[in-house]
Design a protein that fits this description.
The protein is mostly helical and 496 residues long. 70% of the residues lie in helices and 2% in strands.
């Protein structure tokens, strides 16, 4: 029986296929495969998604952190651009699965970890997303607090910083609660506004500082290549890990893509360019403040506090918009889906968004942001080491093991082929543990620190290789003939 239809590279369920699984405990409206009518996201939607997510205070802070660690402006920018070009590879590879089969990340994870085992990578990604959610709320709340103090007697209000933080946190939870389609619409109009405001800030800095020379004249603090590399490799891992979370759950968004071309063009044209461009603006503006005010102001809110009340008002709106577009898209969808996947028949995406918001508070973002060392090495570096192996398993399973052939209805059966008898694919678990353990152990062995400094990349490659080897000849792998038996092929023209 044909349970799925493939048309121009997009696979959807047939009526027969949907009837087989609609009563399954692993199926609900948020987790089901998308329909043809729901594949509406164009290249512009994906470009605006990444522009909105990349123009944010953590991007600004990461560039500033690299400068504070001793890099000059071009070393910091090239490190960030290189990291984003590297992480774009797994993003595009995992995007293909979401686009072709219309499945969200937790369902995609059932393919390689099993129907029950999928909770391991889904919850891992969800916890990190919740951590990022809290970090962005703290950034935004602190910025709003600074700007309010510059405009009013806000500083006299007891607990003013915490009030600003919790108020902004509530706003983020509310917007996230509205769901992915509301996020798409917000990103579409927010992206051009954020670009204009960022460029306006750069023009101001360039004018006030008297040109590029005074702004970008600070030299690197490293006197030898060895000194530079000791900071470069962990910084590169941090730049990669910045979006390693999205490399995993990008199917949550690409399941709505009109075509593979739409998501590839939109993402490739926007991620490295926006991250590099906004990081440059952050470095340039902070460097300009040394010339203008005699001190480096790495906090954009502190820079805006020097402006007129009207400019401060506009800047506050910009900071709120920049943080919202990043937070609700990059950091709440994955944990909300992870919670939903724990009990699809009892929990909804909306409930997941609220629970993820509460978890973000328990992870104490104020501690992570106490200093740049915590931010770049402790936070970004550690979770990069945890997610790299999961990225490797996802890529290996879809591209090398299954060769892009999935039996959709089996993903929603408690006793289907992707349940692996016990609900867990133990080979995926072992591949993940090996990929995590080797970099962590290397951190403790003298002379092997370079492995830990590149933990995301090395962990990904190790788990990719181990998983591919362990899955050879597995009974869940569909042959081309098996795939054709359940897949009906049609062809209709679709614009990208």
């Amino acid at each position: 029986m044909k349970t799925q239809t493939e048309s121009n590279g997009i696979v959807t369920l047939t009526n027969e296929g949907e009837s087989l699984i609609k009563d399954s405990p692993l199926y609900n409206e948020g987790l089901r495969p998308t329909t043809t009518a729901e594949h509406t996201w164009t290249s512009y939607n994906f470009a605006s998604l990444w522009i909105g997510m990349s123009i944010c205070l953590p991007t600004y802070a990461m560039a500033a952190g690299l400068i504070s660690l001793g890099m000059n402006w071009w070393q910091a920018i090239l490190t960030i651009i290189l990291g984003n070009c590297i992480v774009l590879i797994p993003i595009l590879l995992n995007s293909h699965a979401g686009t072709k089969f219309g499945i969200p990340y937790p369902v995609f994870a059932r393919l390689w970890f099993g129907s029950k085992g999928a909770h391991i990578p889904a919850v891992a990604r969800g916890l990190i997303g919740a951590g990022w959610f809290g970090i962005n709320c703290w950034f935004g709340g602190a910025a709003i607090d600074t700007l309010l103090m510059s405009m009013t007697n806000w500083a006299s209000v007891p607990g003013h910083l915490w009030i600003a933080f919790f108020g902004f946190w509530l706003l983020n939870v509310y917007v996230a609660y509205r769901g992915p389609e509301a996020i798409r619409k917000m990103e579409a109009w927010a992206a051009p506004i954020l670009i204009i405001m960022s460029l306006a800030l750069l023009v101001w800095a360039l004018t006030k500082a008297g040109g590029w020379g005074p702004m970008l004249s600070a030299p690197s603090k490293f006197t030898t290549t060895g000194e530079f590399l000791k900071v470069f490799f962990p910084a590169l891992t941090g730049a990669i890990a910045f979006w390693a979370t999205m490399a995993l759950n990008i199917p949550d968004f690409c399941r709505y893509a009109k075509s593979q071309k739409a998501q590839i063009v939109g993402q490739s044209s926007s991620l490295p360019t926006t991250m590099g461009g906004f990081s440059f603006i952050g470095v340039a503006v902070a460097s300009a403040t040394v010339v203008i005010y005699g001190e480096a102001l790495w906090d954009p809110a502190a820079v805006l506090a020097k402006f007129s009340p009207f400019a401060i008002f506009l800047g506050t709106i910009g900071i709120i918009l920049a943080t919202l577009t990043t937070n609700v898209a990059a950091n709440i969808v994955a944990p909300a889906r992870a919670v939903e996947n724990l009990a699809p028949r009892r929990l909804s995406y909306e409930a997941g968004a609220i629970i993820a918001g509460v978890v973000s508070l328990l992870l104490q973002p104020w501690y992570i942001l106490e200093n740049f060392g915590n931010y770049i090495f402790l936070w970004l570096g550690t979770y990069g080491a945890l997610l790299g192996p999961i990225d490797g398993i996802a890529i290996a399973d879809y591209w090398l093991v299954r060769k892009r052939r999935i039996h959709l209805t089996e993903l929603y059966k408690t006793n289907g082929i992707y349940s692996y008898k016990t609900g867990f694919n133990t080979r995926a678990i072992w591949a993940m543990l090996i990929g995590i353990a080797i970099p962590f152990i290397s951190k403790l062995i003298p002379g092997l620190g370079i492995i830990w400094d590149n933990a995301w990349t090395i962990g990904l490659l190790i788990s990719l290789a181990v998983y591919t080897w362990m899955m050879k000849g597995d009974a869940t792998i569909m042959s081309a003939k098996d795939y054709e038996q359940v897949t009906e092929r049609t062809s209709t023209f679709r614009a990208s």
